[in-house]
Amino acid sequence: MDTASQITDFANFAMSQLQAQRKASIDDLYLEWRTEVFRDVDAAAVMASVRDVEAGERGRPVAEFLREFDAARGDAS
User: In 1-77, which residue ranges form alpha helices assigned H by DSSP?
Assistant: First the structure.
């Protein structure tokens, strides 16, 4: 879903909640919308990771990743 579609979808969701007399902050509405909209995407990412682990992939230690990440950003602290 492109950005314009996401904005439209969120606006429609938020307006429907307001029209239903629901009292919620925009942050709460966004979190609820995002949870609903991206549930399938998040589930697919988790399942892909599970398949990788089942296939023997172990990734790399987080300390190694962070060193490389920091170095790439020029933050060698």
Answer: 3-19, 26-37, 39-54, 62-73
Q: Work out the angle at residue 19's Cα, subtended by the Cα atoms of residues 14 and 23, and round it to the nearest 5 degrees.
A: 70
Q: What's the rounded Cα separation, in Å, for the pair 15 and 9?
A: 10
Map tokens 């029209």 to a residue.
Answer: 19
**In the chain, what are the domain boundaries?**
1-37, 43-77
Length of the chain in terms of residues written: 77
Per residue in 4-39, pLDDT (tens digit) is 999 999 999 999 999 999 899 999 999 999 998 888
Whole-prediction pTM: 0.54
Tell me how crowded residue 12 is: count the other CB atoms within 10 A of its CB. Answer: 11
Asked if 29 and 16 touch (Cβ cutoff 8 Å), the reply is: no
